[in-house]
Amino acid sequence: MEFHPMHWRFDTKKIILVIAVVTTAGAVLQTCSLPHPAAFRPLFSVVTVTTFETPNNTTRKSETVPSNVRDEQLPAVSFPVNQPADQATRVAPQAITLFNSTISNTTSVTSPNTPPSDDGLRESDFADPVSEIVYENDSTAKSSSKQEASGSSLAQNIVEGSRMSNSHANFIPIGENRNKRISPKNDIPKLKLKAPTTLSFPKRTRADSRTKNEVGFMPPDQALLYAKHEIQNAPIVTDDPDLHPPVFRNVSTFKRSYELMEKILKVHIYPDGERPIFHTPELKGIYASEGWFMKLMEENRQFVVKDPEKAHLFYLPYGSHQLKLALYVPNSHNMRPLSIYLRDYVNTIASKYRFWNRTRGADHFLVACHDWGPYTTKEHDELCHNTIKALCNADLSEGFFVRGKDVSLPETTIRTPKRPLRYLGGRPVSQRSILAFFAGNMHGRVRPVLLKYWSDKDEDMKIYGPLPNRVSRQMSYVQHMKSSKFCICPMGYEVNSPRIVEAIYNECVPVIIADNFVLPFDDILNWSEFSVVVAEKEIPKLKDILMAIPLRRYIALQNNVKQVQKHFLWHSKPVKYDIFHMILHSVWFNRLNQIQSWLPFHSVHLSV
User: Fold this and answer.
1) CA–CA dist 22, 62 (Å, integer)
2) Which of 138, 395, 437, 554 is the one with CA 20 to 30 A from 103?
3) 511: enclosing H helix or E strand
4) In this structure, what are the phi and psi dihedrals at residue 536, rounded to the nearest 5 degrees?
């Protein structure tokens, strides 16, 4: 070959390049150094591999490294397709070294000074690359369902492909800190790789992720069992700005139950029933609770479902007061026509739909605030004893109300439906000059006794029948409540009284006189922290009982009244923890309490 002086410098570079290529190719193409693909599988598990056939019955692989080293390329190697596995697995150390040197800018490899084994391999040649992967790409959490299902076995397949012992696996557990380094044992080499977007592992989130992703696909009865288990293992709540722990029996249980209700509960409303008894809410007066609940329930889109197969509860949308107005004959003292009408309605839906007979009415509920609400159910045995009844007349002595199954419904007086929160609030403790106040009609057995002992007997005790005009001209009924430390709430014809909620609205500590009365939301609220309950026989000692309460204790009671007030407020559009949600929660909570008494538990397997 003749070299021209002008091209000497250029041709010298070409010669050096040719020598380097030939030398490198000779080292790589030694037959004793051809690796089997199984040995490279752990190393290439995070790279993209493309294959194509070559004429000499070999497969050439061209591997590109992850995105963080896109500018460099791995060397191409070839091996016979039908090479025996025992020979193919003898990976040449220089091949591993060559791979490591190619990605040295993103990997950290330490090679122990251990002698090679009988087959010429070092322990480091089969180091598990997954053992020290640090996942920096959060997009790997957004994998397909198939990848998530098989993700846990992916590490195992990689380890098996590299013939690595389980004792050498340091795979980072799912859900652990992704930036946490696990110290390898026996100086096993460590490899850090940035996970590409094409490879993803299942990402475990907090415990309630099961609720978001899986409970929606559970059958309704299984979802309820899951919720019951979750409530029984509720995490401890220490500080929640929306909840005041002293007014709850167990604030942790309530919060977890409420969260699950919001995420799980679905209610189906039967479209059957003639107006005005059904689907006609009454929003004004002392029976407004049943009307407001009906209105807000039928307008609701979060809990209500049209498909009854998805429902956990079924609502019977009737109004007990509307039933009385439509069917009761004045002065007849006969309530049987009312209960017969409701019985026939239940029989109609039981014959038309299969859901009543499925549980004999145990997953159905009604809301009735009229005093006669419990009595309208007595002609239908399953309606009376199985259905969840939310009743203002929550009297244990009558046999209609069952604590733990039925719900004590707050009786609220709404005078202006467009402004249900009118007159809300009260004066501070220092401006409450009246010790105790009551004014009302002489209904029932308790009120006459109250007036007998305290009407016009003591200046500190403002106890009246109907508020006299001479008194109301100076101070109205509402102003009396706002100016009193204690508001007396005696039962009327029945145990319930709208004065309890009125007292709470006016930030006056309620004094409840009604034996056998289950207080509203008694399953959740601790009434001893914001009210005083006095037995009927203790009426003669009423002032002494109230005066015995220390000022510090009274201030705590009155403050708790203000804190619990939010749970008794009606809103045109329901807000979290208001009375609408509290009623629905109590129905939900009592449904969970009763579920094992009828549900075929053997048909449901709960995994936690």
Assistant:
1) 19
2) 138
3) strand 509-513
4) -60, -35
Cβ–Cβ contacts within 10 Å for residue 296, how many?
21
- The segment with the largest mean pLDDT, out of 38-42, 66-70, 260-264, is 260-264
265 burial level (CB within 10 Å; 0-12, 13-18, 19+): buried
Q: What tens digit of pLDDT does each residue of 295-310 get?
A: 999 999 999 999 999 9
Give the Cα separation of 327 and 290 in Å (integer): 18
Element counts in the chain: helices (H) and strands (E): 20, 13
Amino acid at 151: G
Residue 463, helix vs strand vs coil: strand
> Do residues 67 and 51 lie in contact, with contact meaning Cβ atoms separated by under 8 Å?
no
Average pLDDT over residues 432-442: 97
Give this prediction's pTM: 0.66
Q: List CB contacts of 119: < 8 A, sequence separation 6 or more.
A: 90
Rounded Cα–Cα distance for residues 100 and 73 (Å): 12
Quick one: tokens of 101? 């040197």
Query: Which amino acid, 111?
Result: S
Q: Looking at this protein, which amino acid is placed at residue 68?
A: N
pLDDT higher than 70, residue 32? no
Instruction: Report whether pLDDT(433) > 90.
Output: yes
Q: What is the pLDDT of residues 146-174, one digit of tens each?
A: 444 344 443 344 334 433 333 333 333 33
Handedness of CA 215, 216, 222, 225 (dihedral sign): positive
3-state SS, residue 390:
strand
Q: Is the pLDDT of residue 65 over 80?
A: no
What is the torsional sign of CA 100, 101, 107, 113?
A: positive
**Which residues does 353 contact at the CB level (< 8 Å), separation at least 6?**
270, 308
With beta carbons less than 8 A apart as the criterion, state whether 485 and 427 touch: no
Burial track 126-159 (b if 16+ CB lie within 10 A, e otherwise) = bbbbbbbbebeeeebeebeeebbeebeebbeebb
Q: Work out the number of other CB atoms within 10 angstroms of the CB of residue 505.
A: 23
